[in-house]
Specification:
By secondary structure, the chain is mainly alpha-helical. The chain has helices spanning about 20-25, 50-70, 80-90, 95-110, 115, 120-130, 135-150, 160-165, 170-180, 190-200, 210-215, 225-235, 265-270; strands spanning about 10, 15.
Length: about 300
């Protein structure tokens, strides 16, 4: 015998089976929402490139920057993980040069976490005054030194989850330490990195953690630390926030934002930071080599 069809109940313009409608709401019980699944950052370009094209262009840019900055490295002076950790915390809202001028006196007086943990805050403040926000930074470096002493035996931990628990230490600082003191890959999303990857249309994310995930998906993990150095060095020397030196940029042919800055080669070259005080590890071609006969960006280094 054929089974009878279950009558449907009308809900608005749609019809749903009676059994389904009965399950939809239970009198006296409030609905429990399930947690939304964690969103993964998909590989895709704001400019509409295919995922494959974006990966190829991003990796090509990194290869070109590796030729321009073969010796790119963290520009903070340090002799051990503790010094790098403290110097990175101090570098917020100031220059690496200023930090490098300040830390020798700090580490001479307080060479270990135990020493800095027991320091007189007023004396530390006086040393850190040139770095700006010296009171907050004093609290952070003394606080992280106490945490290292009490929780990690005076050693800087080599795990992300431990580092971010320290006062004044976020993911950016943690990845600087992991990548450069312990050789563990990480992406350092500082202001230069954020600006350039958005300018290059690798991502349109604005949250640092989402930028980290989006860019990390474009590269093998083993490239992350060197990639961070290449991008940051380029942002400090050529691809400036207000006036990028487009006409002297070695990756101009690969950059969707070419033309936002100065495109005349001679004028652009005057904007390069290395002109004003040293540019270790930089390899640049003559200004005219960046444009072809028609005044457009010439092929990048190594192009066929």
């Amino acid at each position: 015998m054929a089974k009878k069809a279950v009558p449907a109940k009308s809900v608005g313009k749609k019809a749903v089976p009676a059994k389904a409608a009965a399950k939809k709401a239970v009198p006296g019980k409030s609905a429990v929402k399930k947690a939304a699944p964690v969103k993964k950052i998909a590989v895709g370009s704001p400019a509409g490139e295919t995922a494959t094209a974006l990966v190829r262009r991003a990796r090509r840019i990194n290869r070109e920057l590796a030729e321009v900055y073969p010796y790119a490295h963290p520009e903070l002076d340090f002799d051990n993980p503790f010094q790098l950790l403290v110097a990175t915390v101090l570098s917020a809202q100031t220059t690496d040069l200023r930090v490098n001028q300040t830390t020798p006196a700090l580490f001479a007086k307080y060479p270990t976490p135990e020493d800095l943990a027991a320091a007189n805050p007023e004396e530390v403040e006086e040393i850190l005054r040139p770095c700006g926000f010296f009171r907050a930074k004093t609290r952070s470096v003394i606080g992280l030194s106490k945490a290292l002493t009490e929780d990690f035996g005076g050693e800087v931990p080599g795990r992300l989850e431990d580092l971010v628990k320290l006062p004044g230490v976020g993911r950016k600082t943690a990845f600087v330490v992991l990548g450069n003191a312990y050789g563990r890959p990480g992406i350092t999303v500082d202001t230069h990195f954020q600006r350039l990857v958005r300018r290059w249309q690798w991502t349109d994310e604005t949250d640092p953690d989402k930028i980290e995930a989006a860019v990390g998906a474009l590269f093998p993990k083993s490239d992350w630390t060197d990639l961070s150095h290449h991008v940051i060095w380029h942002g400090r020397r050529i691809c400036h926030a207000r006036k990028p030196a487009c006409g002297a940029c070695p990756i101009a042919p690969l950059c969707p934002a070419y033309g936002e800055g100065e495109t005349d080669p001679e004028k652009a070259r005057k904007l390069l930071k290395y002109e004003k005080g040293g540019f270790p590890g930089q390899r640049l071609r003559p200004p005219q080599a960046y444009l072809d006969a028609g005044g457009k960006p010439a092929p990048p280094l190594g192009a066929a």
